[in-house]
Each structure stands twice: as structure tokens, then as C-alpha cells.
Amino acid sequence: MSDYQYDHQTVKGFIVSSIFWGVVGILIGLWISIQMWKPEWNIAPYFTFGRLRVVHTNSLAFGLGIGAIFGVFYYITMRLAKRPLLFPKLARFHLYLFNAAIALAALSLFAGMNQTLEYAELEWPLDIGVVILWVIFAINIFGTILKRKEEQMYISLWYIIATVIAVAVLYIVNNLAIPASLTKSYSVFAGVNSANVQWWYGHNAVGFVFTTPILAMFYYFLPKSTGLPIFSHRLSIIAFWSLVFAYLWTGAHHLVYTPLPDWIQTLGIVFTLFLIAPSWGSVVNGYYTVGSDWSKMQTNYLTKFFILGITFYGLQTVQGPTQGLRVVSQLIHYTDWVPGHVHMGTMGWVTMTTAASIYYIIPKIYNTEIYSIKVANTHFWLVLIGQLIFSMTMWITGIQQGALWKATNPDGSLKYTFMEGLVKNYPYWQLRTVAGLIFTVGMLFFIYNIYMTMRKGKALAALRA
Amino acid sequence: MAGELYRKPIMFALVATVVILIGTIVTMFYPMFTKGMHPKLENLKPYTALQLAGKDIYMREGCNNCHTQTVRPLKTEVMRYGDYSKAGEFAYDRPFLWGSKRTGPDLARIGGKYPDAWHYSHFENPQAFFKESNMPKYGWLKEGKLDPAEIESHMKVNGFPYTREEISALSAKTELDALVAYMQVIGTAVARKVPAVTAAAEEKNPLEGDRKAYERGEEVYKQNCEACHGDDGKGGIGPRLTDTIWLNKEGEITDGKVYEIIANGTPNGMPPYAGQLDRDKIWSLVSYIRHEQHKQK
Lengths: 465, 297
Fold this sequence. Notes:
The structure holds two protein chains of two kinds. Chain A is mainly α. Chain A is built from 17 helices and two strands. Chain B folds into two domains: 49-185, Cytochrome Bc1 Complex, Chain D, domain 2 (Orthogonal Bundle), CATH 1.10.760.10; 211-296, Cytochrome c-like domain (Cytochrome Bc1 Complex, Chain D, domain 2). Chain B is elongated, with a radius of gyration of 25 Å. Chain B is built from twelve helices and two strands. By secondary structure, chain B is mainly α.
């Protein structure tokens, strides 16, 4: 029993850390959203858009995203293995190392140490740190699963195993570089080949950081919080294998119309289309699970988080393949449509589902109820509205940009200069900042709720003791 | 028995690894060993020490977050930026710098498009060129000194040839010098195509006598030309337009020739505008220039 307590401390530690890095990432996100329409907000050298944008993406993908994944995976794995972690002290060390790595990562990016590989910007010493972190994580996860007390491995464990393996392969390969100094390296891959490796990595970072781990949470916490069993076990088997198979083929849809060999582009587009099927396998499974009792949407405050989350996952996985098509890509690629797409996934699916998982875990750990369902509902509506305004303004202005870039006069000359196209974005970029603010306020409600729940839990524990 | 798989974690992990590796091998690993992935244009040269230092600064400042370096083979894109990108142009980029978002314009054909002076002034104050530009100012790079020893080690890792003089010359250069040198080499392995505008050298201005034309021309001038040629054509980075010295030669010039310079640009740093301005706009610019010439005589 004391072991369980100890492990929960680590789970809690990861959750609190991930929220902290989330706040950092969101505030920087707001800042750079203002820089888009007010260049005076660039403060050289450390706080220019070019440096801040990577701090934003890294602190949210790795600080908030991976941090929460570490904590939630430890929690789920212990529950599904029906035993404490195999190496609790190692997990505790993992937590400290994680925070040190993210802090150093943020500082190094402010300082401009940047490999310029999207979502793999960190320089080589930090890459080694990340690999060590991942190995520690893998040892504990696999060890605990191997020594489990429950014979059958539930769906979430499949996704956890796939995540651990795939991220390791992706991260190591894409970061292979020759160091020139402690703070600078050059990729072992060059030119067209490096583009292909990078987007094989880049798209699968989305696949194995923003998809499979979140599905692991979804499959575990949806039945847990609603008390409804997953609709179809068979469907989840088909969806799992086809998802982890197809994802790795699709990276080249980021490189449509570039000098990458055409056959790789086409293969990427085709498999991206195929990916709709397994993605919607999970969407359908989620809907039919709650479909056996839709009243849960009203009676259980967490259900709507999961259902809206999986809905945005469903929309995301239709929009994504559409964007991959050459005819659509030529209009929206390189425009603000793409950040609109990404943020529907991260704000609508990933953050929504992760927040709901944390709402479930924290009261369990503290042996209490959530502080306020009302506050949770306010959080829900604010992040939903913020995200919708964010995505929609970016889609509209993205299409506008694409159309202006392509517009021609009757004599065939271009109708708009680049600047004429740029200024038309400003109202939308301003609206995006407002949307970000709404989302941020929503997240503050979430943090407040979690903080108050922990306080309540501590007070109760003191009473019991 | 397939159900067994979900009770055997080691087996499960092995199967999952194989499933993950299939797409990886076909689309990423296998192509690496094909010639198509390592193309190199014959006249593509390795970066000089100064250019490499500039590329490093480009990476450090995260310029790739707002600027792409690939022109897609789409008609309007080629008109706007220049010839579409060739696979063999990027052999010395570790890694590639194609980017994924165009908050600012593509830079794949920026090399040689503007004179150095344009870049220096523009980095220092982009808003002086384009009032509503959202590009951050980079004049502070002037204060940054280059470290020759560090850049030499970078040249070595990249396997680029260099001379002693080249390295020692770096100590007199600033980070801004390096960045401008890099700007000027981007995309230059592909010969710049002269836009397919029919020469108008002998043509007369069809808008002559149209009093509204020079007013329209003035508007076009303010948006596109003033940053380099100064207000009212007084000159700046680009030459004065109100005198009779054209292309470094004294003498009168025909309307058609002025049209041609605006449309096609010159090898000395005047960018071509045929892709961005239609015939009416270019002719109205000619009207405006003539008007200013008369006014200032």
C-alpha cells in the first residue's frame, strides 16, 4: 500500500509539472499571436517570433503533452497491471530529470540553439537527455507490464506500448547529427533526403504524441468515468493495428509539390486517405460507447469532454487527409489554414481529453471528489469557444491568403503583391489573439479547479489522520 | 490464437515494432539508398565561410518559422518568386530549410534579387520598406561579431573547402554581413529566368495624355518603388529617376525602355515587376516618372 502512495506522488508530480509547462507554453503562444500583427512586441534577441515560436511548440508538445503522458501513463499502467510501478524510485528520478530537461530546453531555445527541424529543434546534448528520459520511462512501463497481476492487456496498454516504441525510433533517427560544438550540430541528412526524414518524423510525432497516447487515455478514462464498457473490442483491435501500420507512410503529405520524388508524395497522400478509417474506428467506438446511454452527457460532467474531444479528433482526421490532396494542398499549404488545423487537434482533442483524464485522476489520488463541477463546466465551454474561434479564423484567412496568392489579372499578371495579401490577415490574427485569451481563461478555471481539489484532498487527509 | 497476443507483452511489442517499421522502411529508409534522394546540380557550390555563418544565423533566429525556401511548380508561384525549386539545389543544406509557413514571402529565389544595400536597410527596418510589414527588426545583428575559429569548425563538419584568408577575414565581419551574404547565395545555382515579357523598347506610352495616369502611378510607386528610389524619385538604394542618367549612361530614354526595366529588372539589383504589376500599372508608373522628371527640371 505504501508503494502505491509513493507512485501516486510521481503521477501527481508529472501532472503538476505538465500544467506548469502548459501555462508557460500558452502564455508564449498568446505573446507570439500578438507579434503576428504587432511587430513591436518582438524584443531582440531572445524574444523575437523566430525564437519564441519554438519555445511555444516545445513547451506545449514536450512540457504539457509529454509531461502529462508520462504521469497519466504511469497511472493507467499501474491500474491495468494491478500493481505498483516496478521501479518507483526510478520514476521519481524520471520526474526530476524531465523538469530539468524541459527547463534547459526552453533556455536553449531562447538562446537560439535550434536544429531547425520542426518539433525536433533541441540540440544534440538535450537530444541525448530526451533519449535517456525515454529509456527510463520504457524500462518502468515494460517492467511493470511484464510483472503485471492481470493477464489480459487492455486496449490502452496496446497504445502505450506502441507509443513507447515508435517515439524512440522516430526521435533517435531524426536527430542523428554531427556535433560541431556543445551547442551546434549539423544533421547527418542533407537536402531532399533530410526533408523526407524530417516529415516522416514530424507527422509521426503527431501520430505518436498527439494521437496514440491520447487514445490510450480515451479508451481508459471514458469507460471509467461513465461506467459504460467500450462498444466493440473487435473494432478497437482493427483500429489499433491499422492506425499504427498506416501512420508511418504518411509524412510526405507535408511535402506536396516540393522537389521530393513524386512517388513518395503520392504514397504519402494515399495512406493519409486510408488513415481516415482507423481514426474513425475509434471515433465510432467512442460514440457507440456513450450511445448506450446518452444521458451520461448530462449526468456525468466528464463525458462531454471525452465526446467533444473525440469529435475534434474525428474532424481533424478528415480535415488532415483532405489537406493532403494535391488540389487542396496547393491552395492552403504555407497559409494560416495549417495552424488552424493543428490547433483544432491540440486544443480540441489533446488538451480536452488530457484535462478530462486529469480531472479523473486527481480526485482518485486524493480520495475525494472534484472541487467544483460548475468550474469544470465553465472551463469546458471557454476552451471550446476559444478553440472554435481560433481554428475558424485561421481557416478563413488561410483560404483568403491562398486565393490572393493565386489571383491574376486578365492579362495574366499577379493581382496582389505579397504585402497586399499580408495586411488582409491582420483582422483575423487579432481575432485569433482574442480566441487565445478565451482559451487561456478557460485553462485558468481548470488549474484553479485542480488546485482546489488538491487542497481539499489534503485537508481531508489531515482530518483522517 | 490471435487472442494470445494480448496476453504476451513481448510478443505484442515485437509485432508492433514490425508493423511500425514497414512504412518506415518503404517511405523513409529505402529511398535513402536511391540516387533520387541525393541529387546535386552541377553548378551548386558549397557555402563559403561567410555564407555558412549567415545560414547558421538564419537557423538560430528561426527565420524558417516564417519563410519557406521552396517554390512549388505552380504558375502563380513561379511568377511571384521565380523558377520552381529543383531537387539538386539543396545538397549542402544540413538539414533542408524549406519551412512550412509563409508568414513572410518565400526566399528560395531571393539571392541576387535585390542589392546588398537593400538587405541591410530592410533587416534594420522592414517597416521603412513595407509600412505594414510584421517582420521583426534585425539591425541588432550588426553588433554581433563573428568567431572565425567557431565558423572554421563548422566548415570542417560540413566538409566545405575554405582558405586561411577566408577564415581570418571573418573577424572583420558582423553577423548582419553574414546573413546578407547568405541571402545573396540562396537559390543562385539555378540561372535566373528573364520573365517572358515582350520587349516594349520601341513602344510609346499608351497612357500619354491621360491625366489620371500619373496619379495612379504615384500610388503604385509609393507601394512598390519608394523604399529604394526615394520619395518623388529622388533616389536612395536605387538610382535617382528624375535625371537623365539611365543604366549608368547619360541620355534620353524611350518610354518603352523604362517599361522594360520595370518589367524585367536589371542585373544590377532591380527586381522584375512583370509578375506583380499588370501592363496598366507599369505604364502608369512610366507616366508618373515622366511627370516627376518634368516637375523637377
